[in-house]
Amino acid sequence: MKFIIAKKIEMSQEFGPDGNVIPVTVLEAGPVVVTQVKTVESDGYPAVQVGFGTRKEKHVSKPVKGHLKDLGLFAVLKEFRSPDSYERGQKISADVFAAGDTVDVIGTSIGRGYAGVVKRHGFKGKRATHGTKDQLRKSGSIGSKRQGPVAPGKRMAGHMGAAQVTVKNIEVVSVDAAANRMKIRGAVPGSRGAIVFIQTARNSK
Questions:
Q1: Do 37 and 120 sit in the same domain of this protein?
Q2: Which range marks the domain in which residue 143 is found?
Q3: pTM higher than 0.70 for the full model?
Q4: What pLDDT is stored for residue 103 in this prediction?
Q5: Which of 14, 28, 43, 133 would be a feasible disulfide site paired with 38, CB 3.0-4.6 Å?
Q6: Do 123 and 101 share a domain, yes or no?
Q7: pLDDT single digits (tens) 61-80
């Protein structure tokens, strides 16, 4: 499985061979450095931990410094499940992917703050007549039985967004390995500067 860590730069567009406009997200993809290799024999499962970006020494704990040793201090550490063989210190660049590849992109959606049930879950709300007054956008009863507990997963008001989102089966439009740039069709989670994780699509179309 191929993978890389990237930073969202901006939304843009390109023209396809047929002249149609393709909306793309421009990403700064890698390079990443392999910081740890896990195997079935030593850890019980095969995985690769990689580091991306840089961080000031005062913001890194001593255990992490010892773990990274001579590799440098990274802003992001991420583990990917992969049976492929890698070596500690190995660099992985944007050219691990090519135009036409299908990938899954994992990121954190933009936070929307506290939201009610109408905005958060699409509730209809109540009619504005017959004494409804200030109850137009209220959720109504949340219990299913007298003095009973609220059922787990009940749709209620609360924090909206800022959750992990996976966009599946999207196409890599182009890769510029020299500039560490990658363009992916459509939108990916997060605002500008957000970190996203790109990996080979698990369920290709």
A1: no
A2: 116-160
A3: yes
A4: 94
A5: 43
A6: no
A7: 899 889 988 888 899 999 99
- Residue that has been written with the tokens 């890389």 in this structure: 4
Same-domain status, 125 and 101: no
Q: In b/e form, how buried is each residue of 159-187, taking b as 16+ CB within 10 angstroms?
A: ebeeeeeebeebbbbebebeebbbbbbee
Tokens for 9, please give them.
């730069």
Residue 21 has pLDDT above 90, yes or no: yes
CATH of the domain at 26: 2.40.30.10
Model confidence pLDDT, tens digit, residues 75-98 = 999 999 988 888 999 999 998 999
Kindly give, in sequence order, each residue whose CB lies less than 8 Å from that of residue 11, ignoring residues fewer than 6 positions away. 23, 24, 25, 26, 187
Q: What is the sign, positive or negative, of the torsion defined by CA atoms of 181, 65, 55, 24?
A: positive
Q: Is 113 left (phi over 0), alpha (psi -120 to 50) or beta?
A: left
Encoded tokens for 110? 């933009």
